[in-house]
Amino acid sequence: MELKILRHFVVIAHERSFSQAAIVLRISQPALSRQIKALEDELGTRLLERHHRELVLTPAGSYLYDQAQALLKDAGRIKAGVPRNGSSTGALRISCSEPSVVREVSKALSSVVTDFPNTSVTLTSTNTSLDPLPLGIEEDKYDFFY
Known about the structure:
Elements: H1 3-15, H2 18-25, H3 29-43, E1 48-51, E2 54-57, H4 59-81, E3 90-96, H5 99-115, E4 119-125, H6 133-138, E5 144-145
Parallel strand pairs: 3-4, 3-5
Antiparallel strand pairs: 1-2
Helix pairs in contact: 1-2, 1-4
């Protein structure tokens, strides 16, 4: 099981459409369908069912969706936490959709910057209609959303 395929599955599950997920991921719909079919074969169970024009997660698909999100988040933290050039560094990327939350989070982050000077902190105010969170997940843009 590859992280790339799990990222694709998460976007499909969120979009509830192979064609829409293919647009978001910028890959062809047939290639995406083949990836999910191979994942279902590997796991020995169906992950998605078609209901009219929408995809619905099966119980196995719901379980995989939750686990894949957690795994992808952990993989991003691992990648960000690997020391580079012998120094202990890290990165924290937070996205908030509410302006009032951005102010509160930025106040709380001041101690992080003080306690961990080699950690870069990025706080973004996100308009989810322009920057959908699943795409942020796929592109590994954020560590935390609110």
